[in-house]
């Protein structure tokens, strides 16, 4: 008889040997999802025996996790803010730090309910979370991505969360119309020179969601140069960028005609969230 505790202990030991960080937590999340339980429920069921079907499924997932397949892909879900999102190979797995960007946005003043653009939306965690929190309607939420597969995943998440939205396949602002109270983006920002240094799990993300030129700033340069006309006066733009790119992107935004508010810090106190606003009377970019 194999119990939940047996699986947790043996699985955590295996993952530790394979170099997986937080091996016990990984196993708890894997087992809880397999059984349809909350993670904390496991502590009340350590002696519960597992059916062979569950054991077979967990063995296969454990093997893949030991090969650094992301846990989010194995479970098929990510938890972001107060919501659950479908996760797979079609879009970037959002990092826990990205939730800090949502908190920073909530602390800002802008028209609410806002007309929101999530540019490069991927799975949709930013735009859909903000829409749920702010009560944004269909006409007010635009989710755009260059990748049709990512946009399809985003639409699936919107349907599951019952968030009405407009979905647009667009290369940055190319297919976008109108102006917005809030533009959010977590665009590719990894430099090509960092390719070999990425963690094995990150390499499961789509390449087009990761890399952006030799210094990682190619798309952010284009975004910053073209963003201002799509913001309403006093509109807010909020970005996530690389660990060493905060000031550089802030400078790009101000060169594009925006007024920098701050560069917010992530959970590790790294300044990676430039926040900027369109002045009431915008000046022409230099």
Descriptive overview:
With 286 residues, the chain is of the alpha/beta class. It has two domains: 4-67; 90-277, Rossmann fold. The protein has helices at residues 4-17, 23-35, 52-66, 71-75, 98-106, 125-134, 148-161, 218-226, 246-255, and strands spanning 77-80, 83-86, 116-119, 141-145, 166-169, 180-185, 231-239, 259-265, 271-277. The strands form two sheets. The chain has a seven-stranded mixed β-sheet with strand order 5-4-3-6-7-9-8, sandwiched between helices. It has a two-stranded antiparallel ribbon with strand order 1-2. α6 links the parallel β3 and β4 (141-145). α2 runs antiparallel to α3 (52-66) and α8 (218-226) packs parallel to α9 (246-255). It is elongated and about 70 Å long. It starts with a helix and ends in a 9-residue tail after the last strand. The model has no long low-confidence stretch (mean pLDDT 93).
Helix and strand layout, with pairings?
Layout: H1 4-17, H2 23-35, H3 52-66, H4 71-75, E1 77-80, E2 83-86, H5 98-106, E3 116-119, H6 125-134, E4 141-145, H7 148-161, E5 166-169, E6 180-185, H8 218-226, E7 231-239, H9 246-255, E8 259-265, E9 271-277
Parallel strand pairs: 3-4, 3-6, 4-5, 6-7
Antiparallel strand pairs: 1-2, 7-9, 8-9
Helix pairs in contact: 1-2, 1-3, 2-3, 8-9
Could you tell me the CATH topology label of the largest domain.
Rossmann fold
User: What's the mean pLDDT score?
Assistant: 93
CATH superfamily assignment of the largest domain?
A: Vaccinia Virus protein VP39
CATH architecture of the largest domain, by name, is 3-Layer(aba) Sandwich
Give helix and strand order, one letter per element, not per position. HHHHEEHEHEHEEHEHEE
Question: What characterizes the major β-sheet?
Answer: 7 strands, mixed
| Number of helices, where a helix is a run of at least 4 consecutive DSSP H or I residues | 9
What's the CATH class of the largest domain, please?
Alpha Beta
Unreliable residue runs: none
Derived structural class: alpha/beta
Question: Which range best describes the helical content: under 10%, 10-25%, 25-40%, 40-55%, 55-70% or over 70%?
Answer: 25-40%
| Strand order within the widest beta sheet | 5-4-3-6-7-9-8
Number of strands: 9
């Amino acid at each position: 008889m194999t119990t939940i505790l047996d699986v947790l202990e043996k699985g955590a030991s295996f993952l530790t040997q394979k170099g997986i960080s937080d091996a016990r937590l990984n196993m708890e999340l894997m087992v809880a999802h397999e059984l349809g339980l909350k993670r904390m429920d496991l502590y009340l069921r350590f002696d519960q025996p597992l059916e062979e079907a569950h054991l077979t499924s967990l063995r296969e997932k454990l093997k893949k996790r030991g090969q650094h397949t992301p846990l989010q892909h194995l479970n098929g879900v990510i938890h972001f803010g107060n919501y659950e999102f479908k996760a797979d190979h079609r879009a970037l797995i959002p990092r826990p730090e990205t939730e800090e960007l949502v908190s920073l946005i909530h602390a800002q003043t802008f028209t609410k309910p806002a007309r929101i653009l999530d540019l490069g939306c991927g799975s949709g965690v930013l735009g859909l979370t903000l829409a749920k929190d702010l009560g944004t309607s269909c006409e007010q939420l635009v989710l755009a991505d260059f990748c049709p597969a990512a946009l399809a995943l985003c639409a699936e998440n919107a349907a599951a969360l019952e968030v009405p939205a407009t979905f647009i396949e667009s290369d940055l602002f190319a297919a976008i119309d109108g102006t917005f109270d809030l533009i959010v983006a977590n665009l590719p920002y990894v430099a090509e020179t960092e390719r070999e240094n990425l963690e094995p799990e990150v390499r499961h993300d789509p390449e087009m969601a990761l890399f952006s030129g030799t210094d990682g700033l190619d798309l952010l340069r284009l975004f910053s140069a073209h963003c201002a006309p799509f913001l309403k006066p006093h509109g807010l733009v909020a970005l996530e960028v690389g660990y060493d790119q905060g000031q550089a992107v802030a400078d790009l935004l101000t060169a594009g005609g925006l007024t920098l508010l701050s560069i917010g810090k992530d959970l590790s106190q790294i300044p990676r969230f430039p926040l900027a606003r369109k002045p009431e009377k915008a000046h022409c970019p230099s």
